[in-house]
Specification:
The complex is a heterodimer. Chain A has eight helices and 29 strands. Chain A is mainly β. In chain A, the strands form eight sheets. In chain A, strands 1, 4, 5, 14 and 18 form a five-stranded antiparallel beta sheet that branches. A five-stranded antiparallel beta sheet of chain A has the order 2-3-15-8-9. In chain A, strands 19, 21, 26, 28 and 29 form a five-stranded antiparallel beta sheet that branches. The longest helix of chain A has 12 residues. Classes of the chains: A mainly beta, B mainly beta. The interface between A and B is large, with 59 and 62 residues.
Chain lengths: 490, 434
């Protein structure tokens, strides 16, 4: 492959100017006044069980990337249960694959964990206003104003003092049984059998830029979803026992929007584009077992990627001990800490301090950063640089620094209880969003040695086992020629 | 193919113990991005390190004991008084923003929402838009346990916010010298009670600081082409700062801006007596106030260019003209102020709302205002159509106000002028055309 090919890997090729028909596949406003017809079909899966389902698409029109997959759980009982608020209904999907004939265009393993990372980039306003209804995600924040005391000297008319903030669900915090709690709206409570949906472009990020011209494909197009084990599908509200969660197979559907343009235009497009090339990214998932002792020493982990163009590395460490008796289940990313809790005076416990993550990536015999990164705010910046959008999570959530996260509860679980020493690795959200992401900005193909991650986590002192999950984002090349797909990693 | 690389630059005036504070004799932090055959990606540049607040040497501020507080809407930005960017090769000043913290006290609330400020701005720059939460989590928490506040903040300014990569080659800018002039401790901190006796020795301290950025190295052919150009230009926006006080019911600000392409002017206000005063927040962006904290509401406002009304050819007659007790700041004032900072239609996220833009007549001034503190200011945009700006080289700019300033309370106006600049570089050196 020559260097000109390399140059086209990283961005979608521009639409040819001489093309007389508009680019029908591009997900963007189109400069045409042509009437568009959208046909919506509700498709049942051809295979469905509690572990797996497959949808087969009809080879007609152009598949709209915002087509939806609907999912639901059967309510185990009449108790309150909920989807993890940072993942929503995506907690049900362990792996998703988009296949054409015998070829896999895109397959994401650990999809529910990757969604925990991706959801950080949806702004809080959007989450509480739309995602809570659509997918069950609702990471948003509100100040917890103190109504116990008037502002220091401002008087009752000026009661604006808020020492903390907490999660916001659109409902008020309510004090019951000596604790103050906020719950999700009834429509999001699993006991009421909510049906949520995931957009196709969220399942398969390659569809964010491109729509599939199904009418030009001669092979069967299918979507396969592998469901996650019951233990991580949903959360029980506090004081509610764990349950076995089963997929409501009657509600698993694919709501497909097929776009049609005038027949003449679609024929002309097919005629003018005998070969369509799509550059997109694919994600390769890998896992690595850790203990607090091993994580405290510098580890060197090879993530692969040899011979590939890798553009991003995403990493997070999960405590294996957390389960459905918590807010986030295993869909979190631990940051090191030693148990600094809200209300403690600084230095109240000898030697107490926030630990740090030391991190760097070596490829092609050079490190990505000249000095290993250990500042948590710098990690945060690197994540923002990698995605082009800052994570919409707070300092306590990301790095366990600060004491502004409320001691109040969410669905019965104390939000600040993310400390290592607490039961089950912490049931709250404190320090549970410490995802690391790094953009490999040198535009180099990784050599045969692959990517090596150098990392160290100070004071992961939970005592339980941990799993470090990583994804590498690789450039992939898919071609549609004469109705048949070929796809290769660049 | 162009490649990028990450850099981490430590201050060129680093101290032996790697700690920097205004109080202990380090009022300037200087970073040098050396001249090299690469281009700086300005939007990747971050000032990073750790930040600590101390009541006195060796004593951290502790919860519910110390009244120490700082501006919740600025966080670590409170500490930067002046940002200066120069050419390393020639020493020519490319951009300088005096009263940088006060500029950001207007810019940040207008362009970021409360959720932004609770979230990523809190993590990156220690902003948390409630005075008490910010005090508890930033001022008090850096503890004797060794924990300090990590930060990694951008340095918003015209040069770094621009989309064009900044050429660092010796034939172009020749490297950059970035200076952060720190603000006095008494301007950064204030007491959240009515006494400052226990915090007179308070100070802030930086440690482990560095500047991180990415540079882009063009492919050899492009690089050669760039280096062989006899001269070239680089367009960027800048912020120019002016200061004036008023102490009259007829407030007049009048400046010769000396700039040829002015996009907009905005100003924020604080009683002059609050500057460098531990009793008050010197970085508050208050409405004009009388000595007792009662509002000196603006009843009429207009802007002038060369003595004639411009760009609005009418007076902004406010709600208080008919009802002096109306606590609502006139929406026209808020609209034009926000529009001067960023095109109003493009402001998709903001913290400015009816809670923090009301005349509260608070004798504690800004200390108890929710949602990031008072967000008042005046301003006007000159050119929202062509985006090329208006010529103020030889004519004066003016703000005329009628207001209820009936006591002897000088009001400090920090005026910020947003203008386009062109940097010309070549064999004869650098020249900034403003």
């Amino acid at each position: 492959m020559d260097s000109s090919d390399d140059a086209t890997m990283l961005q979608r090729a521009p639409v040819r100017q001489e093309q007389i028909v508009p680019d029908l596949l591009k997900v963007s406003p189109m400069e045409t006044s042509t009437a568009t017809d959208v046909e919506t079909s509700i498709t049942e899966p051809v295979v469905i069980s509690d572990n797996f389902c497959r949808f087969v698409l009809l080879n007609k029109g152009i598949l709209h990337s915002h087509s939806k997959v609907t999912l639901a759980l059967t309510a185990p009982d009449a108790n309150s249960r909920f989807f993890p608020p940072n993942v929503g209904v995506a907690s049900l999907i362990e792996r998703c694959a988009l296949k054409v004939g015998t070829k896999t265009l895109q397959e994401i393993d650990g999809y529910n964990f990757l969604t925990a990372y991706k959801s950080m980039f949806i702004n809080n306003e959007h989450q509480i206003e739309r995602e809570l209804v659509q997918s069950g995600r609702c990471i948003a924040h509100e100040f917890r104003y103190s109504d116990a005391v008037d502002t220091l000297a401002g008087g009752a008319a000026n009661d604006t003092l808020a020492p903390t903030y907490g999660l916001s669900t659109g409902k008020e915090y309510k004090t019951e049984n000596a604790s103050t709690n906020v719950i999700l709206p009834q429509y999001a409570d699993i006991k009421n059998s909510p049906v949520f949906q995931i957009a196709l472009s969220d399942l398969f990020p390659m569809l964010k830029q491109t729509q599939l011209p199904l009418y030009m494909m001669k092979e069967q197009v299918s979507i396969e979803l592998t469901f996650a084990p019951s233990a991580v599908r949903a959360q029980s509200a506090s004081l509610v026992a764990s349950a076995t969660y089963t997929i409501d197979t009657n509600e698993v559907k694919f709501i497909a929007d097929y776009i049609y343009y005038p027949q003449q235009m679609m024929d002309a497009y097919a005629e003018a584009n005998q070969q369509i090339t799509i550059n997109h990214f694919d994600y390769r998932h890998s896992k690595f077992s850790l203990t607090s002792a091993t994580a405290a020493e510098q580890q060197i982990r090879n993530l692969g990627g040899a011979g590939r163009i890798v553009t991003k590395v995403i990493t997070g460490v999960q405590s294996n001990a957390t389960n459905d008796l918590s807010i986030l289940n295993q869909f979190h990313a631990m940051c090191p800490e030693t148990g600094m809790e809200f209300g403690q005076l600084p230095g109240a416990v000898a030697g107490q301090n926030n630990g740090s993550i030391t991190y760097n990536i070596k490829y092609n015999d050079r490190f990505l950063y000249p000095i290993d990164v250990s500042n948590s705010a710098r990690h945060f910046h690197n994540v923002a640089q990698a995605e082009g959008v800052p994570p919409f999570v707070t300092r306590e959530e990301y790095s366990h620094q600060g004491v502004a996260l409320t001691g109040d509860h969410f669905m019965g679980y104390q939000q600040v209880a993310g400390t290592a020493a607490s039961a089950l690795g912490g049931r709250g959200i404190n320090g549970r969003f410490a995802w690391l992401s790094n953009r490999l900005n040198r535009n180099e193909r990784v050599n045969s040695r692959g990517l090596e991650v150098y990392f160290k986590y100070d004071t992961l002192d939970n005592g339980s086992a941990f799993t470090q999950r990583s994804w590498i984002e690789m450039v992939k090349l898919t071609q549609l020629t004469g109705g048949y797909i070929t796809t290769t990693l660049a | 193919m162009a490649t990028q690389s990450n850099h981490e630059i430590v201050p060129s005036n680093v101290t032996s113990n790697a700690k920097i504070s205004y109080r202990n004799g380090n009022p300037v932090i200087q970073f040098i991005i050396g001249e090299q055959d690469a281009m700086l990606l300005g939007n990747t540049l971050r000032f990073t390190g750790q930040f600590n607040c101390l009541v006195k040497n060796g004593s951290s501020s502790t919860s519910n004991v110390s009244p120490l507080a700082m501006s919740e809407k600025l966080g670590v930005y409170s500490t930067i008084d002046t940002l200066t960017i120069k050419s390393q090769k020639t020493g020519q000043t490319i951009e300088t923003i005096r009263h940088y913290n006060r500029f950001l006290a207007s810019y940040l609330p207008v362009t970021s929402s409360q959720q932004d400020n609770i979230g990523h701005a809190y993590t990156s720059s220690l902003i948390l838009p409630n005075y008490d939460a910010q005090t508890q989590s930033v001022v008090n928490i850096p503890s004797s346990s060794g924990t300090a506040n990590s930060f990694c903040c951008a340095l918003p300014c015209g040069l770094f916010n621009g989309r064009n990569p900044i050429p660092l080659m010796p034939e172009a800018i020749g490297g950059l010298l970035i200076e952060l002039h720190l603000a006095p401790d008494s301007q950064v901190f204030h007491s959240n009670t009515d006494s400052s006796a226990s915090i007179t020795d308070s100070f802030y301290e930086f440690s482990n600081i560095s500047l991180v950025c990415e540079t882009m190295t063009p492919d050899p052919a492009t690089l050669q082409q760039m280096k062989s150009q006899s001269s070239s230009t680089f367009e960027y926006n800048s912020i120019n700062t002016y200061y004036q006080t008023i102490n009259s019911a007829n407030g007049i600000i009048n400046f010769q801006l000396g700039l040829s392409r002015v996009l907009g002017v905005f100003a924020n206000i604080v009683p002059a007596a609050h500057i460098n005063n531990l009793l008050y927040d010197g970085l508050a962006t208050l409405y004009p106030t009388n000595t007792d904290g009662s509002s000196a509401a603006i009843t009429e406002l207009f802007f002038t260019r060369n003595g004639t009304k411009f760009p609005l050819d009418f007076n902004v007659n406010t709600l208080q003209q008919k009802d002096a007790n109306n606590p609502t700041v006139d929406p026209q004032i808020v609209y034009y102020y926000m529009d001067a900072i960023k095109k109003f239609a493009d402001i998709t996220r903001t913290s400015i709302n009816q809670v923090n833009t009301r005349y509260s007549d608070d004798p504690r001034f800004d200390k108890d205002v929710a949602d990031g503190g008072c967000g008042f200011g005046v301003g006007v945009a000159f050119d929202r159509i062509s985006d090329q700006g208006v010529d103020f080289r030889n004519v004066n700019f003016g703000i005329n106000m009628s207001l209820g300033l009936t006591s002897d309370a000088p009001q400090a106006f920090y005026v910020f002028c947003h203008a386009k600049n062109t940097l010309v570089f070549g064999g004869s050196g650098l020249q900034v055309l403003s």
